[in-house]
Amino acid sequence: MGDSINFATVTTTLATVATVALYFVHKRETSKLRDALALQRYRRAHSKPSFEIETLFFPDKRIICWNFLFSKCRDESCGYCHDCEAPLARLVKTLQNAKRSIDLALFEITSEELTQALLDKLKEGVRVRLIIDSEYMMTTGSKLGKISSAGCEFIHDHTHGLFHHKFAIVDSQLVISGSMNWTRQAAIGNYENVLLVKDKNTALDFEKEYAKMWEEITDRLKSANEKLPDQAAEF
């Protein structure tokens, strides 16, 4: 009888200890899970998104100071714009930040500011390539001669349609795309939009299309027995 009572007591005690132990284990694991979820929410709230998009709207309200863009303006009475957040200043800065490559697909290029940014990058050893429309590469004020002489590789689309793209891929990381032709008129006179999209997947999509266009256009030029304009003597 006594042994039965002792056995029952021991059994009850063990069951109680096990229950208490399970309770504390459950409490500890629940606390860990709660902390992990809180950390996850914190990281999500405070971490940078996987992509960033900046929107630029033109025309610029005022003409940007050249020295402000490319060196330093020391003229205290300068009447030009010195706003680093002005649309054209942001666009130039994006090109200036390139470290390895800039791939351009443009209808035309006459902008002095954007051309200078490309020339500076070429001087630094950044690879710059350009696909441009056949007709508008010769337009009045075209800067194709300048950048090709400085080392920009380029081909021109020779079809019956227009090569109407206006985009650039910077360092395989960032895409510049929008309605704006790379001209002075577009920057200071037209209503235009430009998106700066920092996203590797988006950049990869544009790179694939760029490589496809480069191959197709090069093949068409060769099959038409046209000399690839790798030098700017004709300009």
TrEMBL record:
GO terms, molecular function: RNA endonuclease activity producing 5'-phosphomonoesters, hydrolytic mechanism
Residues passing through the membrane, by range: 6-25
Pfam families, A to Z: PLDc_2
Catalytic activity: a cardiolipin + H2O = a 1,2-diacyl-sn-glycero-3-phospho-(1'-sn-glycerol) + a 1,2-diacyl-sn-glycero-3-phosphate + H(+)
Residue ranges occupied by any PLD phosphodiesterase domain in the UniProt entry: 159-186
InterPro entries: PLD-like_dom, PLD_domain, PLipase_D/transphosphatidylase
Record's keyword terms, sorted: Hydrolase, Lipid degradation, Lipid metabolism, Membrane, Transmembrane, Transmembrane helix
Keyword Cytoplasm among UniProt keywords: no
GO biological process, one term: piRNA processing
Gene3D superfamilies: Endonuclease Chain A
Gene Ontology cellular component terms for the protein in this record: mitochondrion
Family that this chain belongs to: Belongs to the phospholipase D family. MitoPLD/Zucchini subfamily.
Protein name stated in the entry: Mitochondrial cardiolipin hydrolase
Species this chain originates from: Oikopleura dioica
